[in-house]
Design a protein that fits this description.
The complex is a heterodimer of chains A (194) and B (556). In chain A, 70% of the residues lie in helices and 0% in strands. Chain A has nine helices and no strands. In chain A, helix 3 crosses helix 5, helix 4 crosses helix 5 and helix 8 crosses helix 9. Classes of the chains: A mainly alpha (194), B alpha+beta (556).
């Protein structure tokens, strides 16, 4: 039985202890245990899969370097998720500065419409989010999925609350449009019902 | 209503991503693994760099300190040699002072002589009147005696002060003393004479008688005082508590002081030549030489230093053979990886290859490791200069990620890098990224000049020179073991230069063990004038910082 295989059977705390010692087998086991889940987070914030993998890579290096700071009272996956999001935001921050987000008030929200995403593949949903403009994508992720308020998002991204709201509205409009397009397409093939 | 719909919208997306997983590519972990290795290597490199920097700093400090110590010794020696002349001037001045003292004594003696002649000139008729004035004369002579004794005391005092100077001329001192003593005895005799004249007033030839008595008394007094002069002088010296005990030796002490000073010079000269051989043959000023020749004295130095000089021992350390090994960090010096698949190269090499994988931008570790082992021969060409040459085997290893592979004649997959793509006709393919260890082997022939900053048992040496590196081969090894090794030699078709030149510099801290062995610690830097790859001229030069040891066998 290989060392890595043995490490994969260890508990989170044992893996954390191994990573703190710099044990490579423990590091790899921890990576193997959480990399898939973390990649989903990274995919939502990135523009492409390659970029998401870069964020994942950078995030895990940060995890291994700061694993000694992890406290047992927190959940490991939550702590890692926060690191991944911060890494993603840092990687996107330059883009945000280059293309500053502005209020998009002219957009009108469409009429109320019940949506269902259950018929979509994960890759399709990721592709829809990745197709959003940088600002919209980040605000959408933070507000809709991570659950941050617009005020918190404004502080995190150093933008106004209003900007965060307008960016979110824009993201919502764009996503609705994409979902509508997909509905038409999938409806044609009978794959997904929205 | 809108709020509810909005919440539904968010919840829908949140639920859609909950518990979802996606598989990352293998390259993610490979890159993480490589980066963690690099961090570990960087920490090692930082350690080596700090160690090398500390060693060089230590060597510099020792060198500067040694040089300053050497210069200060040299200055002190010259200063002590030139001090002799003003010392002699002092001697002359003090002699003059003594002459002055003697002159004063002489003057006083002359005054007394005048008094004597006055006595001689006395007429017989005046004797009676003198007899009448006996008591008066007696009291006067007592006053004279007191004044004479005062003069003698002053003379002794001055002599003692001359002894404090320690530079008085003995003969002059003696003559001045004798004169003052003679004068005092004359004065004393004069009183006696006056008394005897008064007692023998019947004598007809009083002048002759008086003169003969004075003469006889003078001779007797001189003899007496001469015999007492030494003791008087010594008593005066002892009586004066302000005079240090060693200065109780009067004139002989002065001579001895000069001699001992010469002896000290002699001793210092040897001492200084012990530290700085150049001083050994330095000519002393004429005055010192002249004084030195007058009195031959043994140098005041430890017997251990009078035995075989260290220089004699050092001269034996002329040629040596040493075995050495060194390890350290290797920085290829290229910001753009030589192994990265450039797009143009990829396009050309991908022609005809049906592979959907995009060429990965390979991450190459910024630093690798290097080690060398070899023999060297050294020769001392001047007192502090040496020349060293030898032959070394050198290995420079570095890790990076490649997504290239080729196939051997037996159709086994072999490790491959982009740099070789246009140098082979073997089939290529784009693969999943994998970690490759690349090691370059050289035979290096260094030629270095060295300067001995400290040439002692614990020696410090600074070396600088150039090395000719003959490329042997480069070996690529897939760390996962999935691919076979790939070896690239030198030649016209090789991407590597057959010959390379590098600049070397190092400090060598060594310790001599026994008569024929020396162990050295050698932190050094090697800077190649060009990259080993032909395709990378001018893009950055490899730099090696290492620390090694050398074991030296010294030929007798």
């Amino acid at each position: 039985m290989s060392k890595i295989h043995i490490a994969s059977m260890l508990s989170d705390q044992e893996l954390i202890d191994g990573c703190t010692r710099g044990d490579r087998a423990s590091q790899k086991a921890l990576y193997e245990r959480y990399c898939r889940k973390m990649l989903v987070f990274c995919q939502r914030y990135a523009k492409s899969t390659a970029e998401a993998e870069d964020i994942l890579q950078e995030g895990f290096i940060k995890v291994f370097k700061s694993i000694h700071q992890f406290r047992a009272e927190a959940r490991l996956d939550t702590w890692m998720t926060r690191i991944m999001i911060n890494t993603a935001l840092n990687s996107q921050r330059q883009k945000l500065y280059m293309l500053p987000m502005v209020d998009v008030t002219e957009l009108q929200l469409p009429e109320s419409e019940e949506i269902s995403l259950s018929g979509f593949h994960l890759a399709e949903l990721v592709a829809m989010i990745q197709s959003l403009p940088d600002g919209c994508r980040i605000v959408f992720n933070l507000f809709a999925i991570e659950g941050y308020s617009h005020k918190e998002i404004g502080e995190m991204l150093e933008i106004s609350e209003g900007t965060s709201k307008s960016q979110y509205n824009r993201a919502k409009v764009l996503l609705r449009a994409k979902l509508g397009a997909a509905e038409m397409s999938y409806g044609k093939y009978g794959k997904t019902k929205i | 209503m809108e709020n509810t719909e909005r919440q539904k919208f968010e919840e829908s997306w949140k639920e859609a991503f909950e518990g979802q997983e996606m598989d990352p590519s293998d390259s993610v972990w490979n890159n993480i693994d490589l980066k963690l290795d690099n961090d570990k290597m960087k920490r090692r490199v930082i350690f080596y760099q700090r160690l090398a920097a500390a060693s060089v700093l230590f060597a510099l400090l020792i060198g500067i300190g040694g040089t300053r110590y050497y210069n200060r010794n040299q200055r002190n020696d010259l200063a002590s040699a030139t001090k002799v002349t003003p010392g002699q001037e002092q001697i002359t001045e003090s002699t003059k002072k003594k002459e002055k003292v003697a002159g004063t004594a002489k003057e006083r003696t002359e005054e007394k002589s005048e008094n004597e002649s006055d006595i001689k000139k006395l007429n017989p008729e005046e004797i009676d009147s003198e007899t009448k004035d006996r008591l008066t004369a007696s009291s006067q002579s007592k006053n004279q005696q007191e004044s004479i004794s005062e003069a003698g005391y002053e003379s002794r005092k001055q002599n003692n002060s001359a002894q404090v100077d320690g530079r008085i001329d003995q003969q002059q001192l003696r003559s001045s003393k004798s004169e003052s003593i003679a004068s005092s005895s004359k004065e004393g005799n004069k009183v006696l004479t006056t008394k005897s004249q008064k007692a023998s007033s019947e004598s007809a030839n009083k002048d002759d008688y008086t003169a003969s008595v004075i003469h006889a008394n003078q001779i007797a007094a001189m003899k007496k005082e001469e015999t007492n002069s030494g003791s008087t002088q010594t008593e005066g010296a002892i009586a004066d508590p302000g005079i240090p005990l060693p200065l109780l030796q009067a004139t002989p002490l002065n001579t001895h002081t000069e001699e001992s000073r010469l002896a000290q010079n002699n001793g210092f000269s040897k001492m200084s030549s012990f530290f700085s051989p150049q001083l050994k043959n330095k000519e002393l000023p004429k005055e010192v030489v002249a004084m030195k020749e007058e009195k031959r004295v043994l140098p005041e130095m430890p017997a251990s230093l009078m035995t075989t000089s260290s220089k004699d021992k050092k001269t034996k350390e002329n040629t040596w053979l040493s075995f050495g090994a060194a390890a350290g960090s290797y920085n290829p010096g290229n910001s753009s990886s030589s192994y990265t698949t450039s797009s143009s190269l990829m396009q050309s090499s991908m022609a005809g290859i049906n592979n959907q994988s995009a060429p990965q931008s390979n991450t190459r570790s910024s630093v690798g490791s290097a080690y060398s082992v070899g023999l060297s021969f050294g020769k001392k060409v001047a007192e502090r200069w040496i020349v060293q040459t030898g032959v070394n085997y050198m290995n420079q290893a570095i890790s990076f990620t490649s997504n290239y592979a080729t196939y051997t004649a037996s159709n086994d997959r072999a490790a491959f890098v982009a740099d070789y793509a246009d140098k082979t006709t073997a089939p290529l393919s784009i693969t999943q990224p994998y970690k490759v260890n690349s090691s370059m082997e050289f035979v290096s022939v260094p030629v270095q000049a060295g300067y001995l900053l400290i040439d002692r048992k614990l020696a410090l040496q600074w070396n600088a020179g150039v090395a000719t590196d003959i490329f042997l081969r480069n070996t690529l090894k897939d760390q996962s073991g999935k691919s076979a090794r790939y070896t690239q030699g030198s030649g016209a078709d090789s991407p590597y230069r057959a010959l390379n030149m590098a600049a070397l510099t190092s400090t060598e801290i060594s310790y001599k063990m026994g008569r024929q062995y020396r162990l050295s610690l050698v932190p050094g830097v090697r800077y190649s004038f060009q990259s080993a790859l032909k395709s990378q001229s001018g893009t950055g030069n490899p730099l090696i910082m290492d620390i090694g040891f050398r074991f030296r066998y010294i030929f007798e």
